[in-house]
Design brief:
Helix content is about 70%, strand content about 0%. The chain is an all-alpha fold. The N and C termini lie far apart (about 70 Å).
């Protein structure tokens, strides 16, 4: 009888249970398979870029969870005057030290080319531990919250620098850097959009719950970082790049008159003496386009930091017409997010054609809208400025990536990405500081926003357009 029953198969209740389990799992497994197909398409799975896309999505989700917890503690939970003091304190304790640490991040990570996976995993794990540390302080808002927030900020920016340096190592065949960065950035934006409402829901349970969620996400990211291919840690042929070098220096040693040495102090070669040793080329040695592109992008980043802090307080104190403070902030935030996503999508579609012209054009577009917002301040123009700022920042950054890929030699390209990302993060800090210090006057704020962009245009547009007219000796990568 026992042998006969063994061939009867599972009973109806077991079959029904299995069918129910499959039905419940189907939405999640189907979604996971769809995400995997999207991130691994067009050779991204074989090159390892798909893994980096997924890692960046995890990074974005974890960061927004911490942002929700901090915003609720530092900003939303107290009256406006007290909130402004708390945010000023937050900037003083976190942003000011970060301004000093940021120039060190790029060079420090530049010295660890063989440990990029470990560096990204370490940044994830450190944020997981700091999230748990912060969970005990968010309820009280004690000063111990701020050093932990500084640590999270530094780790987040360190991850961003390493990620920028890693992307060129994972390009699939016939894949441009601008397209690769578009995919990575878009994944982070989508993950942020999904995780933000989840974090807000967790906040209703308790102020520490978004931080618990962030901890779990970053722990998963720690393990995911080590799934990147080993070539991420390869440093074959790499050298360090400097963003600023004296005018008399370039990548080619030049002999001083009457001597066998070079003007840049390189060792002499020949006659049995030590051979000449080249200095690492600075970005000026490969053309001015990259430097002018950095100046324009610094203006966009400064504008981003300024708008985040200034509009957060302005709209809380003076909401948009007919709207509550929360709805006003939501309108501008959603507009900026949609604009950023659209800029990323357009950057991928343009395939880095004419990056100098693109950067100059979007900088002029952002400046025009900022001037209109200053002259005719209204709900529509504030939302439009948020959307345009997100759009132009994304498209300008992708175009800068394209120029670095085109103009910077491969052996120093990853170093250049690390240095440029650090510079742009510092510009964001400066813009945020201006935003928190400025009086809550709408016309004054929009005028300052226009002034930031005008300064960027004055220092970069002429050089960008001149470089576009002259062309480049380097082949463009489609």
């Amino acid at each position: 009888m026992t042998a006969a029953r063994s061939h009867d198969g599972p009973g109806p209740l077991r079959r029904a249970g299995r069918a129910t389990g499959r039905a419940l799992r189907a939405p999640f497994t189907g979604t996971a398979r769809g995400i995997r197909r999207a991130t691994h398409a067009h050779g991204a799975g074989e090159s390892g870029l798909g893994k980096l896309i997924e890692l960046h999505a995890v990074n974005g989700a974890g960061d927004v969870m911490i942002t929700v917890a901090l915003a609720s503690t530092v900003f939303f939970s107290v009256p406006t005057d007290e909130a402004r003091g708390r945010v000023a304190l937050y900037l003083a304790i976190t942003m000011a030290p970060f301004t000093l640490l940021a120039p060190v991040i790029g060079p420090l990570l530049d010295r660890l080319p063989h440990g990029r996976r470990a560096a990204m995993a370490g940044a994830m794990l450190a944020r997981a531990l700091l999230a748990i540390t912060m969970s005990g302080a968010v309820a009280t808002g004690g000063l111990e919250l701020y050093p932990a927030a500084l640590g999270v900020l530094v780790c987040s920016k360190a991850y961003g620098v390493v990620r920028s340096a890693v992307v060129p190592r994972l390009l699939p065949p016939r894949f441009s850097l601008v397209k690769a960065n578009s995919r990575v950035t878009l994944a982070g934006l989508l993950a942020t959009g999904v995780a933000a409402p989840i974090g807000a829901g967790l906040q209703t349970i308790g102020s520490a719950w978004p931080l618990y969620g962030a901890c779990a996400i970053f722990v998963a990211g720690t393990f995911l970082a080590f799934t990147l291919p080993p070539k991420v840690d390869s440093a074959k042929g790499e050298r360090r790049a400097r963003l600023i070098v004296p005018h008399h220096e370039d990548a080619t040693p030049r002999p001083a008159p009457g001597k066998g040495s070079t003007r840049s102090g390189l060792r002499r070669g020949g006659n049995g003496k030590k051979p000449a040793k080249e200095r690492p080329p600075g970005l000026r040695s490969v053309g001015g386009s990259v430097l002018h592109g950095l100046q324009a992008n610094a203006a966009h980043r400064a504008l981003s930091g300024f708008l985040i802090f200034f509009l957060a307080f302005l709209l809380r104190e003076h909401p948009l017409a007919g709207q509550s403070a929360a709805v006003s902030l939501g309108i501008v935030g959603v507009a900026a997010g949609v604009g950023n996503a659209c800029g990323t999508a357009v950057g991928s579609w343009l395939r880095a054609r004419g990056p100098e012209v693109i950067i100059a054009t979007v900088l002029g577009l952002a400046l025009s809208v900022a001037v209109l917002a200053a002259v005719f301040f209204s709900t529509v123009l504030v939302a439009a400025l948020g959307a345009v700022a997100g759009f132009t920042q994304a498209l300008s950054k992708l175009s800068l990536d394209a120029m670095i890929q085109r103009d910077v030699p491969e052996e120093v390209r990853t170093s250049a990405f690390a240095r440029s990302e650090t510079l742009l993060q510092m510009a964001w800090v400066v813009g945020g500081g201006i935003g928190i210090a400025l009086p809550l006057n709408a016309v004054l704020g929009m005028s300052v926003a226009a002034g930031i962009l005008a300064l960027g245009a004055a220092t970069s547009v002429r050089g960008l357009l001149g470089a576009a007219r002259r062309g480049t000796p380097h082949p463009r990568v489609a």
